[in-house]
Amino acid sequence: MTDISVKDQIKKIVELQKIDGEIHNLKIELKEKPVLLAQMKEGFEFSKGVLTEVEEKLKAVQVTRKERELELKSKEDEIAKSNAQLSQIKTNKEYTAKISEIEHIKADKSVIEEKILISYDESDVVNAQIEEEKVKVGEEEKNYLAKKKQTEGDIKVIEGRIKVLDSQRKNATEGIDPSFLNRYERILKHKDGIAIVPIQGEDSCGGCFMNVTPQKINEIKMSQELVECEICSRILYLEGDF
Ligand SMILES: [Zn+2]
User: Fold this and answer.
1) Residue 55 C-alpha to ligand 1 middle, in angstroms?
2) In this structure, which of 16, 31, 51, 169 has its CB flanked by the most CB atoms within 10 Å?
3) How many CA atoms lie within 13 A of 224 on its CB side?
4) Residue 215 and residue 11: Cα distance in Å, rounded?
5) Please, where in the chain does CATH 1.10.287.1490 lie?
């Protein structure tokens, strides 16, 4: 037991709460910052994925064009071969048939040529998309890295502040009865970092804003025990008491 009056101990707990409230909020910030950064990274990775997709699309266009160029070459070979055969042909009928065959191959050839031309236009479009995505990825990467640096700095500042508060906290707990401190810390853990709250107005709990009975108000005024709110279980005090 400590020889400091309950009233003075409550006053100390109120001071302790200010420190613990700040520690609680800083710890939430410490948890949130990496999450925000991860979300930003996700966005950046997504854009990188889009860029890769567009680059693959360009590759596919190029591969198809290569195939068509080979096809075109084989049509040209066929035409050359058929043209060479023309001189060996004896009959008119065979000659006409050969000419018609050559015309067919030429028609096929021009279809392939057309497709190759279109594929160059496709490449231009996809190349423009690639350039656009590269700019986007570059900007996002720059923003992400800047944010990362800033967040890492912020985290260091927060961790430093928590260290300072932790040592202030040690001093602030001096003179508080260990059983009071235990109760306070248990509530702190379960009630979002707010364990002790003032009565608001005449008779409202400053934590859950529900009514506090006159009997409880009297108990608080007597300052012989830690009085808890019946609804939210936080410790209650009267601001005018100090
Ligand atoms: Zn309450």
Assistant:
1) 60
2) 16
3) 4
4) 21
5) 22-174
The rounded Å distance from CA 32 to ligand 1 centre is 27
pTM for this structure? Answer: 0.74
CA 23 to centroid of ligand 1, rounded, Å: 22
- DSSP secondary structure code for residue 192 in this structure: T
Rounded distance between C-alpha atoms, residue 124 and residue 118, angstroms? 10
Say whether 223 sits in a helix, a strand or coil.
coil
| CATH tag, 22-174 | 1.10.287.1490
Give residue 4's identity as a one-letter amino acid code.
I
pLDDT tens-place string over residues 145-190: 999 999 999 999 999 999 999 999 999 999 999 999 999 999 999 9
Q: How far is the CA of 217 from the centre of ligand 1 (A)?
A: 13
CB atoms within 10 A of CB 118: 13
